[in-house]
Amino acid sequence: RGVRAVGVGPGEPADLASHRGAFASHYDSGRITRHLDRRFVWAELARRAIAEYPVIEAGGEPFHRPVGAIYAVDDATAAAELREVAHRLAPAGVRWRETVGSPDERIGLHPDATVFVEGPPAGHVDPRRLVRAQLTAARSLGAQAIDAEVEGLERFERRGRSWSLRLRDGGEVEAARVLIATGPHADEIAGMARHPTVEVVAETVVVAALDTDECRRLDGLPSVIAPTDHPVYDGCYLVPPTQYPDGTTCIKLGAEPRRTRVLATAADRRAWMRGDDHTAELPGLLEVLHALVPGLRPARAGTKPCLIATTRSGLPVIDHVDDGVVTVAGCNGYAAKSSDALGALGVSLALEGRWTDAVLDGESFRLGAG
Fold it and tell me: What value does the mean pLDDT take over residues 240-261?
């Protein structure tokens, strides 16, 4: 369409403990990807994003591992919601089946759990590789990427451009339209007329390194989402063995605490990511991991801190915050697998000036929705 695009954002910090800037969600090598969800909106966003994986990978950076996924639930309402969404996805060719109890002897699920088994292309993605692939695809289409942090924006009128983005390194980017997608830092950009209402919560994951024998035993393991019978955690997800940048192969588990820790300020978020409070969760997370993967023999294990940007509606905010300024925020832990589709909605709104999607209702993504 003759649009010149410039993306601005910082790379992964070499050391979290000493980093003083923003933190992103892609400092990881394994995130679940799947179609099935209890809400059709998230399932549809996943469908669109997953369909584009091969196109994005065509630039030479593979990030998608289609090993399948298991989604287990322990109540009838959740099962009915998943079943309804699954049937709506059937015309799109999404393959799934329903069973009771674990379909894989290596996965420990309650024998009465209702389990939805989704075949490929469900599985997991490597977020670091995904970001590199997306940047490669964008550059191949003429986009420019600037490694920097945006501190604020201000309106001006000059040469047909109406916004100036101030960068932390002293630079400046001028633009006619701006799309702001800052993850857990949605309220930290100065000059925005309105900020989305996003609650940032702390989450911890455990990453366990595996030796050759254990990798062989767990080869082909699917991604897993399951309830937990644990006093601290309400549910969990498992990313199968995957290779990390240091060459080790690790299995990863995250779990939702029954009591959330809200990080209300920028200082709170940075302190959580730079600190070591997350290490206190190692024993509990290992209990959940060993219950889900009986007989697991990790060579070593450790925890990592995460930030989850949540909204009241459980859906992202994709809306104008000013004339020519759109924000995408509060992705509720779904940002990695569906990032392409989320970005497409934001870009469309910024360029068209109005919601044009024929399937998804724009009111669901408005500021203050839910």
Answer: 96
> What pLDDT, on the 0 to 100 scale, is given for residue 158?
63
pLDDT digits (tens, 9 = 90+) for 31-44: 999 999 999 999 99
Cβ contact 33:50 at 8 Å: yes
120-148 burial, b if ≥16 CB within 10 A, otherwise e?
ebbbbbbbbbbbbbbbbbbeeeeeebbeb
Distances (CA, A) of 88 to 71, 229, 347, 361: 17, 31, 26, 16
Q: Angle 23-224-301 (CA atoms, 0-180°, nearest 5)?
A: 60
Q: Kindly indicate the confidence band of residue 121, based on its pLDDT and cuts at 50, 70 and 90.
A: very high
Q: What is the β-pairing status of strands 114-118 and 123-125? A: unpaired
The domain boundary, picked from 310, 340, 361, lies at: 310
Q: Where are the alpha helices (DSSP H) in 230-369?
A: 266-274, 282-292, 335-352
Average pLDDT score over residue span 279-295: 98
Please give the pLDDT value at position 26.
82
Kindly state whether residues 107 and 210 are assigned to the same domain.
yes
Residues 137 and 247 occupy one common structural domain: no
Q: What angle is formed at CA 318 by the lines to CA 323 and CA 91, rounded to 5 degrees? A: 135
231 shares its domain with 349: no
Question: CB neighbours of 264 closer than 8 A, spacing ≥ 6?
Answer: 200
Domain that holds residue 75: 65-117+199-310
- Total domain count, the chain: 2
Exposure string for 256-271, b = 16+ CB within 10 A, e = fewer:
bbeeeeebeeeeebbe
pLDDT in tens, 304-340: 999 999 999 999 999 999 999 999 999 999 999 999 9
CA distance 367 to 347: 17
Whole-number Å distance between alpha carbons of 178 and 257:
35
